[in-house]
Every structure is written in C-alpha cells, then in structure tokens.
Amino acid sequence: MAKQIGHLLTLLALAFCCLAFAFEPKPLQDFCVSDPNSSVFINGMACKNPMQIQANDFYFRGLHLKGNTSNPFGLMVQPVTVAQLPGLNTLGISMIRIDYAPWGINPPHTHPRATEIITVIEGTLQVGFITSYPEYRLITKVLYQGDVFVFPVGLVHFQQNVANKSAVVIGALSSQNPGAIMVGNAVFGSKPTISSEILAKAFQVDKKVVDLLKAKF
C-alpha cells in the first residue's frame, strides 16, 4: 500500500509540474514590470527595479484610434502585449483592437500561447475556429454589435467582415505574449522555404500551384 501511495504521489507531482509549465506562472510579487534593456534571457521578461516603476509602465493609450486597413487583407491589428505595456509582464493577459475594412479578413491563424475572446464594437463579422485531429470540425457564427466569441488556445481561427461598412472588435488574450502563426505565411512564406516538392505532395497539388502560392507570401 505504501508503495502504491508513493507511486500515486509521484504521478501527482509530475501532473502538477506539467500544469505549472503549460501556462504562464503566477507572479510571486505584486508586479514585475518588464525591463527591455536587460540582457538576461528568461522565459518571459526580466523585471525592472521596483523603485524605478512609474504609472506609465502600467498604461497604454491608442485603442480609441482607427487602424489603417489599406492593405490586401483589409485589416489592422493593434496589439497591447508586454511589448507595448511593460506592466503586463507575468500577469498572463493582453488585449487587441482589430479594424476591418468592408469585407476585410483576419486570415486563418493560431495563438500558440493563448485563448482569445473578442467583442464586436461595430459591424458584422463571421468568425470561426477548427477543431483538432481527427474531426477538423468548423465551428462558425455570425456576430453583431455587442456579441462575444471565444477562440480556444492553439486552434486555427479567423474573422471576416461580412458587411459593406467597417467593423471593429476589442479582444483579450490569456497571455502577456500570445504569439501569432498565420497559416499561409507559415506554410508558404517560411524562411528558408519548405521544399515545393514537399508541399505539393502534402496538399496533393501540382508544384506549379505551390510556386504560385509561395510567390504571394
């Protein structure tokens, strides 16, 4: 019995260890404002001397400003991560404002380190995400002003403005640095590039199609 309990405690310890490293650690102090000038490399950002902290370390201004959507996607994303707001360091949260031109799109992408929740401030959007293997099920819905939608961590998702006027959303993400992997850019625009032969076989298309797509990224 004692041996079985010992094994159980070991398994529990391993489980809690994995949980601790699966998400951003909880802060061990009131705050840890990031120090961009630090040469220390850690999982996150090094802390600034608390005696040098100012109110502006916890402040960001700009989410009231309309983004420039004059680009092929008709999209502008204004992030508020630890890079823009140092006081977010170790707090496990960030924000975004997304502007969409009429029929603009936020292409399929993932946030490898965060769940995302958005609320529509203006406009009408079709949003959706795709479940993982083996179902690859599309979960999609049309959102209107005031609606809220959540995209689970790591899943491929998208948003498209489906109206003839601009749209705006405000979102929050469960990481100070959620990251973003745009599917098209990652697959067809990596540096160095993935072999066209590999992609042609993976997507079951002619190599010329792959080369055409690569030229766009």
UniProtKB/TrEMBL annotation:
InterPro entries: Cupin_1, Germin, Germin_Mn-BS, RmlC-like_jellyroll, RmlC_Cupin_sf. Its main location: secreted. Keywords: Apoplast, Disulfide bond, Manganese, Metal-binding, Secreted, Signal. The keyword Disulfide bond applies. Residues 61-211 form the Cupin type-1 domain. One of its GO terms (molecular function) is manganese ion binding. It is found in: Secreted, Extracellular space, Apoplast. Disulfide bonds join 32-47. One of its GO terms (cellular component) is apoplast. Oxalate binds at residues 106, 111, 116. Residues 1-22 form the signal peptide. Mn(2+) binds at residues 109, 111, 116, 157. Belongs to the germin family. This is Germin-like protein. It comes from Ambrosia artemisiifolia.
